[in-house]
Amino acid sequence: MEAQTRRRMVADDRRAQIVDAATRLISSVGYRQFTIAGLARECGLTRAGVLHHFPSREDILLAVLTARDDNDAAAVMSGADGPGDARTMLDLLVRRNMTQPEIVRLYTVLSAEALDPQHPAHAYFTRRFERAVAMLAELLAGSDRPGRELAIEVHSYMDGLQLSWLRDPGIDFAGQWAAFADDLFARHRLA
Q: The whole model's pTM is what?
């Protein structure tokens, strides 16, 4: 990269730039094909420049995943009436995901790759699933079924719907979700 296209950035801004570029690259080529050299080119850095901020590919991957989770949580929480507003929070998450198919694709690809216990994100996705189910179970408590069972059903439906939508963007993601959620919330007398 030419020297005039490089620019100095404060460390936090540079790290954010690296995470954004890594998110785009991993979502397009998958983690297995993702390289630090390619990331460095994308950011206008040397390989050593990237490694100065993140010591390994695995650290970059975990930073990408954490950034997505943090951004989603902030967006969903800012639009809900409170922590117990399960339907609104889930609706907001669906609408948010519809605006970022590349991020949904990234998570779908990585979560499938991470089924391999040797994958660097295996533990991350295992913990993430457990946290998501626990949070949903708490939000869905008080129905005629145990909250954990309902949480797994919602999580599984959402994952399946997202995968189908990625395969066929003509699917009415919001409409499919609303029909499922209307039925689920009515059937189990959820608020």
A: 0.75
